[in-house]
Amino acid sequence: METKTVRLGDFATLVNEKCYLNEASRNTYVSTENLKPNRLGVFFPITKLPRTNKVNTFAKGDILIANIRPYFKKIWHANIAGTHSTDVLNIRSNSKQLLQSYLAVVLSDDRFFDYMMATSKGTKMPRGDKKAIMDFKFELPSFKDQIIISDSISIINQKIELNQQINKNLLKLGINIAIRTSNINKSTTCRISDMKDFLTVSDHVANGSFKTLKDNVTIVDKPDYSLFLRNTDLKRNLMDDKRWITKHSYDFLKKSHLYGGEVIISNVGDVGSVHRVPYLDEHMVAGNNVIFIQSADSWITDYLYLYFLSNIGQHALSTITSGSAQQKFNKTDFRAIELPIIPKNFVKKNLTPILKKIDSNRVEEDCLITLRDLLLPRLLSGEIDLSILEEVLKNAK
Question: Where in the chain is the domain with CATH 3.90.220.20?
Fold first, then answer.
């Protein structure tokens, strides 16, 4: 593959177009909060809007990149027009020689993120230096090769997005079925505490006092014996900035071991954020500021996961939540929640298969992300024969 080395600023521009935030643009507002980690685009709508009404605009086809150092691998090749925060850069090709979709691939490469990291400025929340960013150099191949490379990555990204949308729809379906059935069975209710013979509600602090935990638990930011699952990790689908603990810590935290399928609910700060622990081939423990529900009978945790994701379940959590500076609830109040219980066989037949399909799609999604991240730098470096990919793309179309 023949290429020439070019400077980003000679072929693209940083777009800085202002407008006033209105009702229409609220549903397409992008910030570091709703840009997904690991190059996975964006989710709408955002929950936290800016305090000011004056924001930046972006057009369909623009490339939006988070510009605060912890979020540098958040990028989106926009398929709609909208508005964005000042913490997000908007980059657009201004040359007929540079395909916008190829530019998106270049800016998704680790080499660009590493460059942003190395040239960022600031101490508390370092930001990418705009002048340095526009000085970034990359290899520009022929227009034909740009199309082959960008199409190859685009096909994988489209499949990832499709899986995510399927899972979103499946989750909605599962919640609707669970709630409709619980309404039919609303006369059959019990408190969570009444299920203590086969259901455990626990958390990180169940293992000992804060001093004992401090003396016996070592949390590290690089891979070690066990994952330390926090609410923020599960919200990011275990991508970026994970935490681990040592073997001694894992052995000490006997009351918060996780095996997959448990329900985790944030009970401090981001109250009511509900997650299902993935089935991973590694040790896991519950992090701080969350409670978890665990049972050998997985049908009950399948149901409770869908129940607490629903509006009814969220309302139940809100009734036990208190605090002005920081919202929170405790395990005792949680155990006192009374809810309808639906038949075990119904859950196993109608709800568990939905969650298993979601799990399967997430495994496939992880494989696709790994494939994309392995393929991307090799395509840009010319390691892969593009003529072979060209044939594959022709057959795919």
Answer: 3-141, 189-341
What is the C-alpha separation between 82 and 96, in angstroms, rounded?
24
Is the domain defined by 3-141 classed in CATH 3.90.220.20? Answer: yes
Domain 189-341 belongs to what topology? Adenine-n6-DNA-methyltransferase TaqI; Chain A, domain 2 (3.90.220)
Tell me the chain's radius of gyration from C-alpha atoms. Answer: 24
The overall longest dimension of the chain from CA atoms, in Å, is: 72
pLDDT in tens, the chain (397 residues): 789 999 999 999 999 988 877 765 668 889 888 888 888 888 877 767 777 777 889 999 999 999 987 776 899 999 999 999 889 999 999 999 999 999 999 999 999 999 999 999 987 788 889 999 999 999 999 999 999 999 999 999 999 999 999 999 999 999 999 999 988 877 788 999 999 999 999 999 999 999 999 999 999 999 999 999 999 889 878 876 789 999 999 999 999 999 999 999 999 988 989 999 999 999 999 999 999 999 999 999 999 999 999 999 999 999 999 987 888 999 999 999 999 989 999 999 999 999 999 999 999 999 999 999 999 999 999 898 888 788 777 776 5
Q: Supply angle C-alpha 203, 206, 212, rounded to 5.
A: 120
